[in-house]
Amino acid sequence: MASVSSSPRTVEEIFKDYSSRRGGIVRALTDDVDEFYGLCDPEKDNLCLYGHSNETWEVSLPAEEVPPELPEPALGINFARDGMTRSDWLSLIAVHSDCWLLSVAFYLGGISFLGHAFSDCF
Description:
Elements: H1 11-29, H2 33-39, E1 48-51, E2 57-60, H3 86-121
Antiparallel strand pairs: 1-2
Organism: Fraxinus pennsylvanica
Keywords: Chromatin regulator, Metal-binding, Nucleus, Transcription, Transcription regulation, Zinc, Zinc-finger
Subcellular location: Nucleus
């Protein structure tokens, strides 16, 4: 699962985290597409595509902790795989992944900058 090893605090760190996670997802959907496609078996449970901050990717079940450490990516990416053309399915995963990347960046920005705002009040 995606995790925040040392939570990015500055705009530059959040952008680096975003870029690294994006790099992992792009690799999954391009260079490693055959491996990614094979891991997304529709017979398995709800799977998610995670991009990690070290530019790697992972297909796994969603986080078990509630609430999760980060926003969750699209759930059940494997279910539509065999009902669509491969390129349409990959495009759908790409759109969901873009949304997830932005939600992670905004989440990290929110917790970072809210922390600064609250500490200035005291």
